[in-house]
Amino acid sequence: MADTWLIVGLGNPGPRYEATRHNIGQMVMDELADRRRESFRAHKANARVVETWLRPGGAKLVLAKPNSFMNVSGGPVSALAKFYGVDAEHVIVVHDELDIPFDSIKLKTGGGHGGHNGVRDVAKALGTPDFPRVRVGIGRPVGRQDPADWVLDPFGAKERETLPILVADAADAVETIVDSGLLSAQQRFHAPR
What we know:
The protein is α/β, with parallel strands linked by helices and 193 residues long. The protein has a single domain (4-189), classed as Rossmann fold, CATH 3.40.50. The chain is 36% helix and 21% strand. It is built from six helices and seven strands. A seven-stranded mixed sheet has the order 2-3-4-1-5-7-6, sandwiched between helices. Helix 1 (24-35) crosses helix 5 (157-180), helix 2 (74-84) packs parallel to helix 3 (117-126) and helix 5 (157-180) packs antiparallel against helix 6. The radius of gyration is 15 Å and the shape is globular. It is found in: Cytoplasm. This is Peptidyl-tRNA hydrolase. The active site is at 22 (proton acceptor). It comes from Microbacterium enclense.
């Protein structure tokens, strides 16, 4: 169905990872569901989903949080895309991005995975890298901390002050892509603030 969009927030399952940088994609899914007063429910594709609408009479949204670990997100995403009959260009993947400063969002379709194993696995499972992405900046660690440890740490106190705004902006970006297209969303969210 051309008016159905699958919106996937990447992350890791379980309470240990809920508040970590790697799970910001799932935080954005929670924001989108909260805006619609909806709750996630189990789906046979090894994910939790909310079926809702952009607005009454608007595009159908399937918000999804895979139950798999980040590096094997592709299986649930591919299964959901098949179940709902959604082509890759209508699968929006929301994920953390080390190479974008914290509190910034970049949007794109296609291209490489930039070392992000979740994105790599989704591209492999969908058979194409050509799907829209909402890349939510978490920045790189200062000093010698391993980036693999950094992404699994909770946000710092200073970051938590602006985190709700960043999550809301990413949710707005998703809605803008669905409503007005990627170019319009890029023009809005890539502009300096």
